Amino acid sequence: MAIERRLAHAGFTLTRDYPVPLELLWSAFAEEDQKLSWWGAGDAAEPGEWAFDFRIGGRDVDEGTFHNGPVSRYEATYTDIVEHVRIVTTYDMWLDGVHMSTSVASLEFEPIYDGTRFTHVEHGVFFDQFQADGPGREEGTRGLLEALGNYLK
Question: What is the pLDDT of residue 43?
């Protein structure tokens, strides 16, 4: 069966207010031991390859095998980092070795009266059989932000 070669585009914005100082929220992204504590699929996947290089031009890798399911691979490059202000990445996702998407994501940090406002804006291109995965990516990111909130408590 031939794969239909098509593209789909999807974008979303998620904003969360976390009741913690900006520096604490920033550290959850910028320090490897902290990011390992909340990032990824948690108990839903068996961890695989991991790399963390938080600097402009640095690359992150997170690969895991879902229980009774596929291998998911995330590879990101940091294209812009302004401490305590923003992080911008481009990243690619694979599922069982098949390239599913390329995305640009911006993460913004803003101090507010009772904590920090975090805004995640993402634009993705989804390939071939993964054309309908845009809503799933948004849902997965919502799950990451919830895991981040739980970690910060």
Answer: 66
